[in-house]
Amino acid sequence: MCGITGVVSNAPVNQLIYDALLLLQHRGQDAAGIVTQLDRKFFMHKAKGMVRDVFRTRNMRALPGNCGLGQVRYPTAGNAYSEEEAQPFYVNAPFGIVLVHNGNLTNAHALKAELFNTDHRHINTESDSEVLLNVVAHEIEKSTRGLPLKPDDVFAAVRNVHRRIKGSYAVIALIAGHGLLAFRDPHGIRPLAMGVSKDGTRMIASESVALEGTGHVFERNVQPGEAVFIDLQGQMYAQQCADKPQLNPCIFEFVYLARPDSELDGISVYQARLNLGETLAKRVISTVPPDQIDVVIPIPESSRPSATQLAHLLGIPYREGFVKNRYVGRTFIMPGQAVRKKSVRQKLNVIASEFKGRNVLLVDDSIVRGTTSREIVQMARDAGARKVYMASAAPPVRYPNVYGIDMPTSGELVAHGRTLEEIREVIGCDALIYQDVDGMKRAIGSLNPAIQGFDASCFDGVYVTGDITAADIDRLNENRVGADEGDEDTSRLALPNQS
């Protein structure tokens, strides 16, 4: 999962891109990068770390130009420790192209061999984004045939890109001397929105919050399979480039990943989480009588809308029982399970008076490994709770995600191969209530009837691209960042929750 943005303006864009990346910081904290263009020359700075740490005044001064793009990276494949794999990526021919990518190519391994043996292109990192850039560059080279670039050439190239690559991808690329290209995979798995400011500046970004927070008016989402080309004068061209586009956005964006103040594909993320709380309330009633629950407490922070709605519908007091230390930062990502367990208490502290002598219902957005949930349940007991019930606004996570969310392997998922009672015993709560898959899809899908379905593969094991086999999952897991217990924990559990 990453956050990407691109801008075409009639004024310098370095500060604008920086501001947009700050608004997308929740989508990636491992590395950040910005590239700008002035007189057909690219100026780039990228490094590991948060946006505020990567870019100093001297770096910003070295990024001139009226168009550019940026990315915040959360690695799911390749080498998380390599500065070279921070984005944007650059290739010098044709024209000169820089690119940022959010998603994950499921056929990157085969494409890499194809690029070397057939297209005679060299890939220098383990990043699937560099593979994607070279496929884009090769197809643009074929479509232009040495002639000046026109929008129709760009769209012809994207059509061929769609035919060659598999997986999820929201892409923004800058073609030197010509303009900005953005496109989205035929299923629209990863989000991409576009907007315009009063002075005519055009911005494309992963989430609407980056547009609105930088003074742009949200226009619309880039459609699945669609390509958008904005020339250097701000003229926009758009064309559908996929043979069979179908909107199947990642449902985990609404459950956890996106900011609550964003709107993705016509759905308010905040309203989606309220709806999940409403359907979860019905599940709670069937498991634990409301009169046996004294208080509802969210696990900060993205579970708050669901917990609020659940408490309201059940008529149970809603309280804040955990205080999050916002300044722990990266110490929450620790090597080894024992240290990771300890770090939960570094990140959260209990307000003991909200637990002592009470039957407590804890609400989380989702449960992945179960290690964090188990520690939080124990924290509630240590604070004096009589009984601790746990409710998840999402269904059990039983399958790996291959589309750009770093879910652990099946063996690391607490729900994989376990019954509800077995999961409850692992977590150590007195009752465990999960959302059901169909209820989740209805709760979110009802907010936009135009959506034909979701990628909910980590919950139901159905991969919407239709080309994922067990062997593919095994191969992707081999390349997964932080797959070993001794490595940094870069799974979803290590991400800071969204306020």
- Multimeric status of the protein: single chain
- C-alpha-based Rg, rounded: 23 Å
Number of extended strands: 21
**What is the tally of helical segments?**
16
What would you call the structural class? Answer: alpha+beta
CATH topology type of the largest domain: Glutamine Phosphoribosylpyrophosphate, subunit 1, domain 1
Helix share of residues? Answer: 25-40%
Largest sheet: 7 strands, antiparallel
Distance between the termini: 18 Å
In CATH terms, the superfamily of the largest domain is: Aminohydrolase, N-terminal nucleophile (Ntn) domain
Number of domains: 2
Low-pLDDT parts are 330-341, 482-499
**Strand percentage, roughly?**
15-25%
CATH-level-2 architecture of the largest domain: 4-Layer Sandwich
Query: How do the strands of the widest beta sheet line up side by side?
Result: 3-2-4-1-10-9-11
| Average pLDDT over all residues | 90
The top level CATH class name of the largest domain: Alpha Beta
- Bulk shape: elongated
Write out key terms for the chains shown:
499 residues; Rossmann fold; 7-stranded antiparallel β-sheet; 6-stranded antiparallel β-sheet; 16 helices; 21 strands; elongated
Summarize the helices and strands and which ones pair or pack:
Layout (H helix, E strand, L loop, with lengths): L2 E6 L5 H10 L7 E8 L2 E8 L2 H4 L2 H5 L5 E7 L15 E3 L5 E9 L2 H10 L10 H17 L6 H14 L2 E9 L3 E6 L8 E4 L5 E4 L2 H5 L4 E5 L4 E6 L4 E5 L11 H6 L5 E2 L2 E2 H17 L9 E4 L5 H11 L7 E3 L12 H11 E3 L8 E6 L6 H12 L4 E6 L27 H8 L3 E4 L2 H9 L11 H4 L9 H9 L21
Parallel strand pairs: 16-19, 19-20, 20-21
Antiparallel strand pairs: 1-4, 1-10, 2-3, 2-4, 5-6, 6-7, 7-8, 8-12, 9-10, 9-11, 12-13, 14-15, 17-18
Helix pairs in contact: 4-5, 5-6, 9-10, 9-14, 11-12
